Amino acid sequence: MPTDLLILVSVLIFPGGLFAFSLGLMLKGVDRRVAARLQGRVGPPLLQPAFDLIKLGFKRTMVPDSAAPGVFLAAPLIGTVAMLLAVALVPIAGVYTPDPRLGNLLVLLYLLSVPGVALMLAGSASGSPFGAVGFSREMALMLAYEATIVLVVAAVGLRTGLAEGGVVTFSLAEIVRHQQEHGAYLLDPLMWPALGAFLFFYPANLGIVPFDIPEAETEILEGPLLEYSGPALALFKVMSALKTVVVLSLGIALFCPIAPHGIAGLAVWLASMVVLLAVGISAVRVSIGRMRIDQAFSFFLKWPLLLAAASLTVVVVV
Amino acid sequence: MLLARNLKQIAARSPWLYRINSGSCNGCDVELATTACIPRYDVERLGCQYCGSPRHADIVLITGPLNRRVKNAVLRLWEEIPDPKVTVAVGVCPISGGIFRESYAVCAPVDQYLPIDVNVPGCPPRPQAIIEGVAQAIEIWRTRL
User: Interface pTM (ipTM) of the complex?
Assistant: First the structure.
């Protein structure tokens, strides 16, 4: 098969596109179900996020008079498309290796910040004061956590690059291959600070309690999403589902990409996604409350950044 | 045609709830909160979710006797909810005014201004009654989709 066609398949069908879409919806369903069980409730059916999407498809899209209609309607599209591309950039150990022409870890980092930018666009274009508050909070949060993820990625890239006898590498495929040959970074004490920093980063990037400050529904009524209804809101839901897949699989690729080849590898990957989701998102989300934006900001500039910087230093020195 | 009908049946499994407090004493609002979030009466089983924004709502729960002060705001808010929607009056206040009836300050009954689909009387109504009201509202909503 020509490689162009392969790239298209990897973006539109597997592991991007259709596959990531259904996986993301399923993960959201698992998250809601696990959270409900932890609170002692029955919880919604596993397919509830899919029902929600179909429902939103039947509702009317309303554009407020004070909104900039073009940007207002384009923002969810921008975010969703960026996430579709991003899924295809993350390798699945033993199953899928992205084509180097698609891009490397740096491209992925840029793509990862696009949904945040889309939310900011949405908030500011909606003309609602709650949207504007959400916009400023999203921006502050992004400034706080971006430094952490860049340092984490640099630490992992540098460790791999030095071990391979070169300089820093930004190829996720190479990072995954190195860990498959020499053991996962999860078991390497030198990389634990980076892992810790990453564990702080991903709830913030996914907008989950305690870092769901830009969309806090009880205080600013879901901020940037306040004015969205119908299919446009559904697109934002799709974006968030895809983003869950991207960030979780990035975590697995950076720290624990150990899996057999073929279908068994896919099963291991799916299982580690679900475990990471249930432990790192659902359990955290039901047990603590939301931070204030100033608390989250100073928190991120202290502990996760410190951990990430420590990890980078350790990698350079050792 | 058949596909669209099936999809609508599925869509009816995701009713999002929105609460409007039109000057209620908060008794009914507390009952609404307990209906949703505690283990004994979990309405998330039915796919319901309380949403923060009127734009996301499918089923509107109105409590309170519609004060003169909030009347215009409530009517405006109701207009902002995208169709199709179902309106449920929770508690005796929006139905008749309850203990506030004949007061100069309230505009109850609410159905003078808004089309109410389901009435859930009580002061406050029991959670079971509210859940039954929501279930009836879902059936009505299914026909409107």
Answer: 0.82
Task: Tell me how far apart the alpha carbons of residues A210 and A296 are, in angstroms, rounded to a whole number.
Answer: 8
**Shortest alpha-carbon distance between residue B96 and chain A (Å):** 30
Identify the closest residue of chain B to A233 by CA–CA distance. Answer: B56
Range of the domain at A117: 3-317
Please give, rounded to a whole number of angstroms, the shortest distance from the CA of B82 to a CA of chain A: 6
How many independent structural domains does chain A possess? 1
Contact B8 A58 (CB under 8 A): yes
Q: Which of A39, A42, A221 sits opposite B45 (nearest CB)?
A: A42
Tokens matching residue A61 = 């899209």
Q: Do B100 and B57 touch, CB atoms closer than 8 A?
A: no
8 A C-beta contact, residue B89 and residue B118: yes
Ramachandran quadrant class, A207 (left: phi over 0; alpha: psi -120 to 50; beta: rest): left
Q: pLDDT tens digits, residue range A4-59?
A: 777 777 777 777 778 888 888 888 888 888 888 888 888 888 888 888 888 888 88
CB contact under 8 A, B53 and A218: no
Q: Which three-class secondary structure state does DSSP give residue B68?
A: coil
CB B17 within 8 A of CB B61: yes
| Residues A141 and A204: beta-carbon distance below 8 Å | yes
Q: How deeply is A307 buried, as exposed, middle or buried, from its count of CB atoms within 10 A (0-12, 13-18, 19+)?
A: buried
Q: Which H or E run contains B127?
A: helix B127-144
Chain A neighbours among B 56-75 (CB < 8 Å)? 56, 58
Can you list the domains of chain B with their CATH numbers? 15-144 (3.40.50.12280)
Q: What tens digit of pLDDT does each residue of A146-205 get?
A: 888 888 888 888 888 877 777 777 787 778 777 777 777 777 777 888 888 888 888 888
State the burial class of residue B108 (Cβ atoms within 10 Å of its Cβ: 0-12, 13-18, 19+).
buried
Q: Considering only CB atoms, which chain B residues are within 8 Å of A62?
A: 55, 80, 82
Chain A residues within an 8 Å CB radius of B60 = none
